[in-house]
C-alpha cells in the first residue's frame, strides 16, 4: 500500500511540474517566422513526423516554396543561395488572424508584412544603372552589383522607413504529437508537385533555349551567307571595275583620235603673244563617250616639262549646263575656227613645244 501511494505521489509531482504545451498559434507563428527569416533548418524540424516521412532536408530546401509578395513564389534554395533575398525581406511583422482547434488538430491563419523588395529595387534602379555604367570596368555582373547596392540601402535605412507589402493570408495546419504541436503538411506530395512543375519549367526553358540556339545558328549561317555573297559581289565589282579600267585604257590609246593639234601664241583683245592650243578629237571606236579629257604638257627649251593643263571637250553629266552631248562612234569634236584655249600661266620659258594625250574617258551608260 505504501509503495502504491509513493508511486501516486511521484506521478502527481511529475505531472504537476511538466511545462504546458506551447499553443499552436505560437508554433505556427515561429514556423512562418523561420521561413521568412532564413532559418530553414529550424522550420523543417517543426514538421510532424508524418509530414517529414520520405522527405529529406535537401528535398525541402530544393522544392519547398514561399511567397515574398506580388505572387512571387521562391524555392527555399533560391533564397538560401541568395542572402540578399532574406536580407531584403527584413524582420516580418506577423499577425494571427484566426485560430481553430479541434482535439489534436488545429489550423492557424497568419498574415505577414515584409519589406517590398520590388519597390526598393525600382527606387534604386536608376542609381544602380548610373553607378554601374560609371564603373563599367568592374568584373561584376549587373545583378551582383544591384544586390550589393540594395543590401547597402537596407542596412543604412531604418527598417520602419522601408516600403512594406502585405503577404497573402497563409493557413497553417498543425497536429498534436507527444512533443507538442507540429506543422502538418503533405510535404511529399507538395514537393513532388513542385518538382514536376520545376521539371516542366526546365523542359520548357530547355526547349526555348534550343529553339533560340537554333535561331542563332540559323542567323549565323544567314549572316555568313550574306557575308560571302557580299564578298562575291565585291570581288565581282572589283573585277568589273578593273576590266572596265583596262577597257578604258585601251580605248583611250586606240579608239580616241586627236588631230589638228596646234600649240602656238596668239593675240587676244586684251593681251599679246599669249600661249594657246587648239585640237580636235574623233571617236573611232564603237562606244559613245560621256567624258573625254585631254592633257597638254608644255616643255622648255631643254625639252623638260614645265606645265600641264587638262581640258574636257566632252563633258556630259546631270550637273552639266552646256547641253553637251555624248561623243558617239565616228563623231568629231573641235572648236570653231579661230577659237583657242589660252594658257595665261605660261611665260617666256615655254619653248613652243607641247604634247597632247587622252587622260580620261567615261562610257555612256546606254552602251
Shape category: rod-shaped
As a whole number of angstroms, the C-alpha radius of gyration is: 48 Å
Largest sheet: 5 strands, antiparallel
User: Which structural class fits the helix and strand makeup?
Assistant: alpha+beta
> What percent strand?
25-35%
Task: Tell me what you see in this structure.
With 367 residues, the protein is an alpha+beta fold. Helix content is 43%, strand content 27%. It contains 10 helices and 14 strands. Strands 3, 4, 5, 6 and 7 form a 5-stranded antiparallel sheet that branches. Strands 8, 9, 12 and 13 form a 4-stranded antiparallel sheet that branches. It has a 3-stranded antiparallel sheet with strand order 11-10-14. Strand 8 (256-266) and strand 9 (274-283) form a beta hairpin. Helix 8 (117-134) packs across helix 9 (142-156). The chain is rod-shaped, with a radius of gyration of 48 Å. The N and C termini lie far apart (137 Å). Mean pLDDT is 85; it is low at 7-17.
Amino acid at each position: 500500500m505504501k509503495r502504491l501511494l509513493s508511486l501516486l505521489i511521484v506521478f502527481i509531482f511529475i505531472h504537476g511540474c511538466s511545462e504546458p504545451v506551447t499553443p499552436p498559434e505560437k508554433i505556427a507563428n515561429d514556423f512562418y517566422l523561420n521561413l521568412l527569416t532564413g532559418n530553414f533548418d529550424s522550420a523543417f524540424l517543426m514538421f510532424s513526423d508524418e509530414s517529414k516521412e520520405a522527405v529529406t532536408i535537401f528535398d525541402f530546401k530544393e522544392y519547398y516554396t514561399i511567397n515574398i509578395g506580388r505572387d512571387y513564389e521562391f524555392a527555399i534554395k533560391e533564397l538560401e543561395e541568395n542572402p540578399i533575398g532574406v536580407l531584403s525581406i527584413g524582420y516580418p511583422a506577423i499577425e494571427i488572424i484566426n485560430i481553430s482547434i479541434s482535439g489534436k488538430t488545429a489550423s492557424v491563419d497568419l498574415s505577414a508584412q515584409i519589406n517590398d523588395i520590388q519597390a526598393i529595387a525600382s527606387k534604386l534602379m536608376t542609381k544602380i544603372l548610373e553607378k554601374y555604367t560609371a564603373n563599367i570596368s568592374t568584373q561584376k555582373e549587373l545583378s551582383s552589383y544591384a544586390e550589393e547596392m540594395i543590401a547597402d540601402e537596407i542596412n543604412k535605412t531604418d527598417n520602419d522607413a522601408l516600403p512594406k507589402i502585405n503577404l497573402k493570408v497563409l493557413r497553417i495546419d498543425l497536429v498534436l504529437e507527444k512533443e507538442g504541436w507540429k506543422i502538418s503538411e503533405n510535404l511529399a506530395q507538395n514537393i513532388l508537385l513542385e518538382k514536376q512543375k520545376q521539371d516542366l519549367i526546365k523542359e520548357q526553358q530547355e526547349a526555348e533555349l534550343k529553339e533560340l540556339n537554333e535561331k542563332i545558328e540559323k542567323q549565323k549561317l544567314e549572316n555568313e551567307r550574306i557575308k560571302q555573297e557580299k564578298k562575291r559581289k565585291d570581288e565581282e565589282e572589283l573585277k568589273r571595275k578593273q576590266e572596265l579600267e583596262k577597257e578604258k585604257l585601251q580605248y583611250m590609246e586606240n579608239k580616241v583620235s586627236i588631230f589638228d593639234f596646234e600649240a602656238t601664241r596668239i593675240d587676244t583683245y586684251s593681251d599679246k603673244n599669249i600661249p594657246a592650243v587648239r585640237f580636235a578629237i574623233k571617236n573611232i571606236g564603237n562606244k559613245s563617250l560621256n567624258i573625254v579629257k585631254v592633257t597638254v604638257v608644255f616643255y622648255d627649251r631643254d625639252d623638260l616639262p614645265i606645265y600641264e593643263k587638262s581640258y574636257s571637250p566632252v563633258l556630259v553629266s546631270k550637273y552639266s549646263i552646256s547641253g553637251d552631248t555624248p561623243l558617239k562612234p565616228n563623231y568629231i569634236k573641235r572648236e570653231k575656227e579661230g577659237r583657242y584655249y589660252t594658257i595665261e600661266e605660261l611665260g617666256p620659258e615655254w619653248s613652243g613645244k607641247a604634247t597632247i594625250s587622252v587622260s580620261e574617258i567615261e562610257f555612256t551608260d546606254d552602251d
